[in-house]
Structure formats: structure tokens, C-alpha cells
Design brief:
This protein is α+β, with helices and mostly antiparallel strands and 633 residues long. The chain has 28 helices and 19 strands.
Length: 633
């Protein structure tokens, strides 16, 4: 058959046997799971063996793209990876961007399935029809930046997913980077690749992606791109990137650190840090950063990041005195392939435990100070699994096992440190979704109107709901929280935020606020149909997302996850002191203090909205039948 949007091909790699084969996709599967996130779930579930060790050769990694990737559809560059992750033991998807997915589609493949373990280090080369497992002796032991530079110099323009020394050493929080810029795989994807002796994957493609109805697509594309170009705030997004969305200086000011806050101002960023902006293929916003330190002890350092927010958030930690230090430690973390959020949380946690003589210098094996030098040392010993770093490399769960008193001191969910702090940001879907996501705390749950206080009035929320494709029949339930003063029930809303995020990620579209705002379920359905030649209704796209989410849930239930794991950190229910401010765990509008009882009711409402049993969290039989998932139940 003729393929449009899709390539129709899945690349199947057996590292143990050094074998490469191509699987043909089934159109029926694509219409039910769309691509990217959804097809990843389907492909993984078909091969899934419960209770497999994440580092076993029997664990799979599947990389996927969406049907819009490889076209000029704005923001269509997402790479999605699914596996069983070592930090949490959960089956989960992770997303990244840059040029890997674009090149994979152009080479003629929608997904890559990787199984087994290579006897010696290798990297996977995909260059159109040329597929080869190449010796990685020259790059094993190199950091991510040097690995990526080496491969791009050797093979030319390409998309590269690479791991650093942390992945090689099976650090459970290690991550990969795409094109040394975009993070992929919070929770240990790099360690899974390391366990398979897979150093990197390189994609190059020149084939092109046929479009079913090019004239109609171009007409719709031109309308959309014109709307994006005319967006009043586009220039400031391009100038400031994610700093426009989350001013870190505001956080530092709240902590009473005005001197540090001034170092994070727009002016300082533009004058002292920003080298230039880079974009993913087809992105009209260019929100990725190349940073350059222009003065001081780290002068001339150049580093890449998916957002200036990443290094600046590290600057909020007591112990880093200058933005230069923050950028330097971030660069080191990126090169090793560690998680900057986890390393920041570890530095803060160990500092507090050391000050209370719970983690003494004797236990740590070195003198602990709240300073740059200690942070640098912490990164080194964790990435290399040296001394106390060997314990840290096994993650939060192992740390708590070593000392049970830590369980009430850590702000973690399912073994991952939290990202969105509701005592500061209040309780929106991004904060709540950290609890119910199979993976635990992660960075995205879709285009919710509660994102970093974006919601405004309830009427404004309704316009967001319509854009996301939330059925009107659900509005009354979403506006029925446990206490009337809360205004919105984030438990029920989170279900639809997850579905919206899944639609975007299955199509391969960017979910960041500055791109997400231009999409609606109606628009992306039209784009999908014009590109693929299918004739799906927008409700079928929404249903595919719900199907994918339920399938992911079923896999994790088989891993032993249940309601007991959807646990709010106990620390959230205690006041948070920030400078002279004392912050409490409040609802999105700040009207109600969230108690454990209210939190439990929100969980009940989330499960109910999903069609899951409130106690076991299993999808009901009627839900399974409605989604045609009987095979996996």
C-alpha cells in the first residue's frame, strides 16, 4: 500500500544476535494508537514480560515518532522512548526533541525496537537503508558532548541520542541527550542503554515523507504558521525562551536572595549568558539555548540546553554563588548524562542531613560544605560510582533503604524527586500528575490551563477545555472539587490533561506552552487526516490517547503498582519556609489548604474520571471493553 505520514516500517534490533530486521506496521494498529506515545505502548505491551529486571537483556527500549514528524507541521519533532525504568521500576514513556525523530522518519522508519545486549560497546547507525551496529571502542568512556561531536564529524549532519559515563556506569537516574541538547529518559534510560552496551544511536534520512493531500495541507499550514508569526509575544519567546514562562529571579526573590535574583534577570541572561537560540526541525519558536560564559573563571565555556531554566534552577540552591557556577555544574551534569534536577535535590538533601549530623562527614567519606567545590565533587562521585556516590547512583529508593529516617525527609514520588513544588506553585495538574503518573515525578502532563498559574477565570478555563477536546459532559465534574472554594477539581482535570498530552505526543507535536497554545484537538485531527489520508474523527484521536494511557496502566499494575504508590510526599503537608515567606500546600486558586483528606478525595476523583476502581486502581471491565483492550487485561 502507499504510505502517507507514516513510513510503514519498524526497525527491529537484536543486540545479542547482532541482527537487524524490518517489521511492517498494521494500519489498524495505527488508527487505534496513532503513533509515538500510543504505538510505543502497543509495541511494548505486545513484548512485555512482567517483573523483568530493567537491566536484563530481556528489557526492551522502543523509540518512536509521530505521524506528523518529518513534515513541516510546526513543532513536529518529538522522539518518544518507552522501557522499564530502573529508578522506579515502572514502564513509562519519556519524550525529547531536536533532530533525531525527523531523521529517523526521513530514513524510512517510524519506530526502533531494541532488545538484547551487545557483547562489546556499539552504536547504531541508521542512514536511509544502511543499518549497521558499529564498534564504539573509540567513544566508550567519552562524555555526551564529545561523543555527539565525534559521531557528527564522522558521519555528517544527523540526529544523535548518546549516553555519557553515568549511563555506562548504570547510574539509575542517568539520562540521554539528543543532539547534546534535549534531555530524554528521566529515570534511567541512559543506564538501560549502558546495560546493553549501546553508546549511541545516529539517524540520517533523505527520503522525504509523502503527504496524502498536499494542497489542502499547505493551505492549512500557511494559515497556522501565519497565526504563529503574528502572535504578539512570539518575539519575546524567541528572545527569552523558557525564561519568559518561569522567571527564576521570582523564586530567588521569594527566598530573600535578591542579589542572586538580579543575576537571573532578563538583562543578565541576554548580556552575559545567551550565545544564540536553536530550534528543532519545523519549530517557529527556537526555544533551545546555546549558552556562553563570557567572564570569570569559566570564561569561554559553551554549553547546550533545552532551556535556560535548567541551569538557573540549580542556582536557587544555597551554595552556588554565581550564575557562572550554576552553568558550569550544569554543563558537567549534562556531559556525564546525569539529571540536573536530581543532582540539585541530592545536593540540597545531603546538605540538610549533614547539618543535622544524620549524614556525617565520616559517613560521606569527605568534608561536606555548601559550596561549588562540593557540588562538583558530588557530581563526579555519582557519575563514576565512587565511594558514597555508589549509593547515590542507585537512586532515592536505595538511599531510603539505608536509613529509614530519610523516608520522611525526601520529596520523592515512586523513587523520583519532585519537579513541581505545589507549596510554591499551588496545586495544578502538573503538580498532581506527578503523583498518579506511572513513572512518578516528571516534567509534563499536557496543556492544562493550570500550568504555572496560567488558568485565570473559570470561563477562561472553559476555552482551554474546548481546545483540549474535553467533552462538555465532563465540565460540571471538573468544576465540582472536594471543597467549593477550590473552583476546579485538578484530580478530574488531570485525566484530560494527560489525554491531551498523549494526543500531542502520539502525533509528534511539541507540548511546550509556547507551541501547544496554537493547537486544538480539532486542528491536529485535521492536520493528521490531511497528512495520512485517514478520515478519523477528533473523538477517535482522543479515544486513542485514553486507550494508550489505560494500556500503560495495565502494564504497571502487572508490575505491582497500585494506589499505595500514588502517594503525596509527606513534606507537602508541612509549611515551606522561603526567606521571610511561609508557604502552605494550597489549591490552584489559593483558597483552600490541601489536607491529606482532600488529597485522597482528589485521587478518588482522578480514578473515577479515568474509569478505574478507586481502591485497586484497575480499569473497570466496562472501560476495558470500551477501549478494546481485553487482550491485555
Amino acid at each position: 500500500m502507499d504510505w502517507f505520514g507514516y513510513t510503514g516500517n519498524i526497525l527491529d534490533i537484536d543486540l545479542t544476535e547482532n541482527k537487524v530486521s524490518v517489521i511492517n506496521e498494521d494500519v489498524r494498529d495505527l488508527k487505534r494508537f496513532i503513533g509515538g506515545f500510543g504505538m510505543n505502548c502497543k509495541l511494548f505491551a505486545d513484548r512485555f514480560k512482567p517483573l523483568t529486571d530493567p537491566f536484563s537483556s530481556k528489557n526492551f527500549i522502543i523509540f518512536g515518532t509521530g505521524s506528523l514528524v518529518g513534515t513541516i507541521a510546526p513543532g513536529s519533532s518529538r522522539t518518544v522512548a518507552i522501557s522499564k525504568f530502573p529508578a522506579t521500576g515502572a514502564v513509562a514513556n519519556s519524550c525529547g526533541s531536536m533532530s533525531f525523530a525527523f531523521n529517523l522518519k526521513q530514513a524510512g522508519f517510524d519506530h526502533i525496537i531494541i532488545a538484547g545486549k551487545s557483547e562489546k560497546p556499539v552504536y547504531l547507525l541508521i542512514s536511509d537503508d544502511h543499518i549497521e551496529l558499529c564498534k564504539a571502542k573509540e567513544i566508550w568512556g567519552k562524555d555526551i558532548v564529545n561523543t555527539t561531536n565525534f559521531l557528527k564529524k564522522k558521519h555528517g549532519s544527523s540526529g544523535v541520542i548518546a549516553i555519557g559515563q553515568a549511563g555506562e556506569n548504570l547510574v539509575k537516574s542517568s539520562m540521554t541527550l539528543i543532539d547534546k541538547t534535549s534531555t530524554l529518559g528521566r529515570g534511567g534510560l541512559a543506564a538501560i542503554m549502558g546495560s546493553k552496551n549501546l553508546k549511541a544511536i545516529l539517524t540520517q534520512g533523505t527520503k522525504g515523507i509523502p503527504i496524502a493531500e498536499p494542497k489542502k495541507f499547505n493551505k492549512l499550514y500557511n494559515r497556522l504558521i501565519e497565526r504563529i508569526r503574528n502572535y504578539p509575544h512570539r518575539d519575546s519567546w524567541i528572545e527569552l525562551g523558557m525564561l519568559r514562562s518561569l522567571p527564576v529571579g521570582m523564586l530567588l526573590t521569594a527566598k530573600g536572595q535578591k542579589k542572586k535574583a538580579r543575576q537571573c534577570s532578563d538583562r543578565m541572561y541576554l548580556k552575559k549568558m545567551k550565545k544564540r537560540r536553536i530550534a528543532c526541525p519545523s519549530c517557529p519558536m527556537a526555544d533551545k539555548d546555546i549558552l556562553e560564559i563570557r567572564e570569570g573563571e569559566f570564561s569561554s565555556l559553551i554549553t547546550y540546553t533545552s532551556s535556560i531554566i535548567n541551569p538557573l534552577l540549580m542556582f536557587t540552591v544555597d551554595g552556588l554563588d554565581t550564575y557562572n557556577q550554576a552553568i558550569k555544574v550544569f554543563d558537567l551534569i549534562s556531559r556525564y548524562g546525569l539529571d540536573s534536577l536530581t543532582m540539585t535535590a541530592l545536593f540540597e538533601f545531603i546538605s540538610k542531613m549533614n547539618e543535622r549530623d544524620i549524614l556525617t562527614n565520616e559517613k560521606l567519606g569527605f568534608e561536606w560544605k555548601r559550596d561549588y567545590k562540593t557540588f562538583h565533587h558530588l557530581i563526579e562521585i555519582t557519575a563514576k560510582r565512587e565511594g558514597f556516590g555508589n549509593l547515590l547512583a542507585d537512586g532515592w529508593k536505595k538511599l531510603v533503604e539505608e536509613n529509614k529516617t530519610f523516608s520522611n525527609e525526601t520529596l520523592t514520588v515512586k523513587g523520583l524527586d519532585i519537579i513541581f513544588e505545589p507549596r510554591f506553585l499551588r496545586l495544578g495538574t502538573m503538580e498532581f500528575e506527578q503523583i498518579v503518573n506511572p513513572k512518578g515525578a516528571h516534567v509534563a502532563s499536557g496543556g492544562s490551563p493550570t500550568y504555572v498559574g496560567a488558568g485565570g477565570s473559570l470561563d477562561k478555563m472553559k476555552s482551554h477545555f474546548n481546545r483540549m477536546g474535553i467533552p462538555e459532559s465532563a465540565f460540571s465534574r471538573i468544576f465540582s472539587p472536594p471543597k467549593k472554594e477550590m473552583g476546579v477539581n485538578v484530580g478530574r482535570l488531570t485525566r484530560y490533561s494527560e489525554d491531551w498530552y498523549t494526543v500531542l505526543t502520539s502525533l509528534g507535536l511539541c507540548a511546550r506552552a509556547q507551541m501547544n497554545r496554537f493547537f486544538s484537538l480539532e486542528l491536529v485531527t485535521e492536520l493528521y487526516n490531511l497528512i495520512t489520508g485517514f478520515n478519523l474523527h477528533q473523538e477517535e484521536l482522543r479515544l486513542s490517547a485514553e486507550r494508550s494511557w489505560n494500556l500503560l496502566k495495565l502494564m504497571n499494575l502487572k508490575e505491582g503498582f497500585s494506589r499505595k504508590d500514588d502517594k503525596f510526599p509527606s513534606g507537602w503537608f508541612k509549611p515551606l519556609k522561603m526567606g521571610e515567606n511561609v508557604l502552605k500546600f494550597r489549591d490552584f486558586y489559593g483558597e483552600v489548604i490541601i489536607t491529606q483528606d482532600i488529597a485522597n478525595k482528589l485521587l478518588d476523583d482522578y480514578y473515577d474520571e479515568r474509569g478505574w476502581d478507586k481502591q485497586s486502581t484497575y480499569p473497570t471491565i466496562s472501560k476495558i471493553k470500551a477501549l478494546a483492550l481485553e487482550k491485555y487485561f
